[in-house]
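Researcher: Structure for this, please.
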Amino acid sequence: MPDPASSVSDAPGNGTRLIGLVAAVSLAGNVFLGVWLWRSSHRQNSRLSRLEALAKSPRPQAPGDGPAAPENHASREDRVAFLLAVAGNADESKNVLGNIAVPECLEMARALLARPAAGDRNAALGAICQRIASSDPARAVALLDEVQELTLRSTLAMRITNFWIEQSPDAAARWLVAKGENVLVREALDAQLGRAVARWSAYDPGNATAFLVARPNLGPASLSALANASAEWGRKDPANALTFALGLASTDPRRFGVVQGILAGWAEREPARAAAYLQQRLYDGGEGNDLYFSTVGLIADRWAGSDLNAAAQWAATLPSRRARRDATRRIAAAWAAADLPGAARWAGTLSAAPSRGVVWQTIINAWPGNDIDGEGAWVSSLPAGPERDETVALHAAKIAPTDPEKALMWARTINGPEIQSKSVEAILTSWARTDPTAVRNWAAANGVAPPSTVR
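Model: Predicted structure, token format:
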């Protein structure tokens, strides 16, 4: 009979051996799993490496095509398989496709199109179309006729035309007008056409302008491109550009914008000549010629950007009161933005009405709010007259939100009774919204009727 004591003493040893056995089995399992994972990964990497090598190798030559190709031939299926395997890696796809000629790329695309729609298949098609477009965009867009899925066709069309616009924007623009509506929604078509014409106009603005003028129903991007193309034509060849633009029918809705764009572009290079042409050819002596008056403003902007003094002198000579006011106002705004003290000095020397009033008010609007005292000192230096009264009223209105009593003090220095009354009433009405009691007290102390809202 076994000794109970010896059995008890052996129990710990048995437990240790059991734990060791479990640990050994666990370790063996982990080793086996690691080896299996490594071999699986190795097989996958080997497969991808083989597919990549095949994809980058030449295709087998047909009988009679010359010396035999290397043994490691790439079939179309190999290349398609590799593209699908790396569909999410643009660099890998580009590296492989860069070694494949356009005809073979077209066949690979057709092989992919025969497959069911899937994310990797569509990504691979995009890479192939991009490769074809980099060499032969016309053949790339021809492939779109074979794409039945509308969303995929639109996506591929965008990728192809992006490349085409970079390489040959005029050809891309013509294709977009002829076929683009079959593959792109209106907004995308307009955006691509605008981009194409913008690049086209950099080297051939005349034909780019004429091309868009002949197109109906232009969208926002295309209209913007037309304005830029017209301006570029005006910078490079204003004489021929204006001959074309003024030859358009007066009923043509594009005529107005094209003439404006050409003269604005010309004014960037030769503002004096552009202004003289405008005056001689487009001013009819009246005040209702919108093309003339809107273009005067554009030339004023361009000229002010290069020579403020010359622009101001030109504006003062304009025979039309309306044109003179608008041009002078624009020049004053540009001058105030660039050199407020200089603009203020110039504005103080003006003697002709009504232009000087417009200039003075423009200066007030440009004066920084943290220099009210400086603004007030300048206003005080202005000569008396209706223009000064309007300027004082504007200065008072600017002060009113923070210091209504000071604003009222300024308003009461206005000489014209009607302007003074309107200025005082406007300040009191605004003040009454926050402190009606103060308004009543001020009105009583100064013998002024308070606004009806606080009576």
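Researcher: Any notable elements?
Model: Residues 1-11, 35-48, 58-72 have pLDDT under 50 and may be disordered. The two ends are 123 Å apart (CA to CA).
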